[in-house]
# Entry
Amino acid sequence: MIETITNKFKRTTRVAFLSTLIWGVLSHGMALFNKFSFHDDLENFYGVGNTYVLGRWMLGICDDLGKKVFGSTHFSMPLFNGLWTILAIAVAVCLLIELLEIKNEWLIVLLSGVMAAFPSVTSLFGYIFTAPYYAMAILGSITGVYLLEKCRKWYGFLGGIVLIGASVGIYQAYIPVAITVMLLVFIQKSLKAGRTWKSYWLDALYYVLACGAFLLFYVAMNQLFLAIQGISMSGYQGLSNMGDATVMTYINRIGVAYAEFFAPKADLRTNMFPMALGKYRYVAIVVLLVLLICKMIAVVKAGKNAEQGSADEVKGVSRLVQILLPTLVFPMAADFIYVMCDREISYIYGIMLYSQCLLFAFLAMTIQDILNGCACSQDDVMTSGQDSDEKATSKKAGNAVAKYATILGAVLFLLMDIVFLHHDNATYLKADIMRSEATSYFTTLVTRIKSVEGYDDSLPVVYLNEFKKSDESFTNMGELDQMQVAPFWYRGNATVLNDSGWQGYMRIWVGYAPTLGDANALAEKPEVQAMPSYPDEGSIRVVDGTVVVKF
# Structure
């Protein structure tokens, strides 16, 4: 029965699905079979985070629906949530290769590795409480584009904008995923011969209208749910002011997006190509440019020698322009999050940057075009008369450049897959060490609190300078600082010890949740002022019927 079901899918679809699952487990297996609970996960252990108040109305619907289906609260479960996350990405890859007509099975395996092991997904596993829903937003964005492209009927258009709009309603930062996939589909169609200027501009208009439509749908639904809930939009990350910036501000942000694509700012938290990956990424860009140049040269040569074809069909330089225009827009689309958000105000981090991995979908699509023979095919380079030998030599040289660039691209793909895999596992190793360190520190703290003279289980506890914890004996392994993807960015004493959710860590993982007293009422007392900082002797005392812990 299983064989009958699987045989209904194309072989390329099966390869994409299975290879993504395998890459996903190899990359995130440690996070699947261990529980790493840091930062937001501590505060949302039984929830999905803020929903309607942040404009994430579809996330709120998913949360409400999940509670009804399971008949329980939400739980931050690594294996259950993690598998759903990988499955959603696997289906998204299947649809993407279908959209971009990537048919070479090795290319599919290599691309699925990037899509599954990209550090943005590693970051997502750090927020496992909401990871499956965010992965569904990625899937919904790509499925929406699939409907827009494959079903050019009114209901296909409607279904596409509803799916993308709902995905934005889960997490707004995945707008760039939808836009970039649309652009890649547009470029892929431009790489083919036979496209007229009329179909070119109609396609462009179609996708511009689709973008406007899904944004309008999202905004309308957001206003509806805010009204139903009787709340106002939060100002978090500038969400309540989204779209209010001036034209000049957006022009500046577009410049930032291009700058981030070609020369990323040295910020480890937004760096999705750490370790050696940054160098390999530049090589990938060069390989992509070489392949596109080969394509464009072939297109121009073919245009000069073309004698057949539709009168409206563009050839030569005009066809080159059709390829060049959307290609120039690609860097902005891949880093569109920098157009949406002001980098100086908004906090941009790993899970917001998944669209950057679509650079490799562009590379895979272009390599597939070369493999199809589109770049230097017999149809593109016609030879006749006395100069046939010269043109044959030119074609051979062009084929050689394209061939070696294709081989280099494939090798680079494999190398990056392995390094992504290495990075992800190193990140989870860091997370495991962080977890052990935090548990040890807080267990010792609880022991010290309960051992202080005059301690009584009924006494309230106050923490002074709670975000200034320091311990000279605390291990600081600088080697781990190479992995900075959120929420695993901590260094030394800045681990969970000083995170906003540190009390949640004590409550959940150490089992200590005392009644809290009023810190302000005791902070200025002379005996409290004279206390040293933890872990020194005397840093924990009972003062006026309250256990005071001074960090």
